[in-house]
Design a protein that fits this description.
By secondary structure, this protein is mainly beta. The chain contains one helix and nine strands. A hairpin with a 5-residue loop joins strand 8 and strand 9.
Length: 108
């Protein structure tokens, strides 16, 4: 069985900051779509859970992964980076054979 993705404490903390004061806190969806410079790209957005999502929980927050994206994200680490080039959610994916400089596109 493939390992589910892992979400760092830093990513959950940033998600908690985003949802702080929101009337209806939303979950962070991490999905994989065809496209991008390397064949696949990550789609990271705020969303509501669907019935068949894998829900990863921490610090009162939720990260969602749909069943189609799950095999592409097996063993991946979802993190939050605040760097000179900008603050963003990042994915360290052991399944990606190569990735693009943009950090959102990869190939298998």
């Amino acid at each position: 069985m493939n390992l589910p993705p892992m979400v760092t404490e830093r990513a959950f903390a940033r998600l908690a900051e985003i949802n702080d004061g929101a009337d209806a806190p939303q979950a962070l969806r991490v999905a994989v779509e065809g496209g991008g410079c390397s064949g696949f790209q990550y789609d990271i957005r705020m969303d509501a859970p669907a019935d068949d999502d894998l829900i990863l929980e921490g610090q009162g927050q939720r990260v969602l992964v749909d069943p189609i994206s799950l095999p592409f994200l097996a063993g991946a680490t979802i993190d939050f980076a605040d760097e000179l080039i900008g603050a963003r959610f990042t994915i360290e994916n052991p399944n990606a054979a190569s990735s693009c400089g943009c950090g959102t596109s990869f190939s298998i």
